[in-house]
Write a structure and sequence with these properties.
Largest sheet: none
Distance between the termini: 40 Å
Radius of gyration: 22 Å
Number of domains: 2
Shape: elongated
Number of helices: 10
Helix content: over 70%
Number of strands: 0
Order of helices and strands: HHHHHHHHHH
């Protein structure tokens, strides 16, 4: 019971830390709170009770969550780039069909992904990490095939609405 009281006291004390983490990493509050609970629990379970190592572990864990978030954003860009390559290849065929000559460009011209492509923070992250999805062409192809077979994709492509909210909602539902 004493540990539980200390745990709750530390979690409420961490509200200011939560604000710092949100501003530094732009991570969801729920994820931050979950990580804080995990670190505080591990702190009390660990015999050394070293607060510095608990704090370092928290920041390391949150930086990995931030990296994953950015990789998922980069995946959206890679998928639309792959879709554009497929459309270009279909148009370049010797005898393309009418559907291949005039494809539905809604997925490729997604306003949300276009915004991600020019996002300075994401571009800085890509430059610093030097990782991309270019080496995972098979994964991108398989994921793209699953996306175009999904009902969410088909409904979005059939919809005449070309707003930013619709484009963003496609990716929110896809994830």
């Amino acid at each position: 019971m004493i540990y539980l009281r200390k745990l709750i006291k530390n979690v409420y004390f961490c509200k200011s830390l939560t604000t710092v983490l949100i501003n530094r990493f732009m991570i969801n509050r729920v994820l931050i709170r979950l990580k804080i609970i995990q670190i505080v629990y591990a702190y009390y379970q660990n015999g050394s009770k070293n607060l510095d190592s608990a704090e370092k572990e928290l920041f390391f864990s949150l930086s990995k969550a931030y990296d994953l978030y950015n990789y998922l954003l980069m995946l959206m860009v890679a998928l639309t780039t792959y879709a554009q390559k497929r459309i270009d290849a279909a148009k370049a065929k010797l005898a393309p069909t009418a559907e291949e000559l005039y494809p539905n460009m809604k997925f490729v011209e997604n306003k949300f992904v276009s915004q991600l492509e020019v996002n300075k923070q994401l571009l800085d992250f890509v430059a610093n990490q030097k990782r991309s999805w270019t080496n995972d062409e098979d994964f991108i192809k398989g994921l793209y095939e699953k996306i175009i077979a999904s009902d969410i994709y088909k409904e979005n492509m059939a919809s005449p609405d070309k707003s930013y909210e619709t484009d963003r909602e496609l990716w929110r539902c896809g994830y």
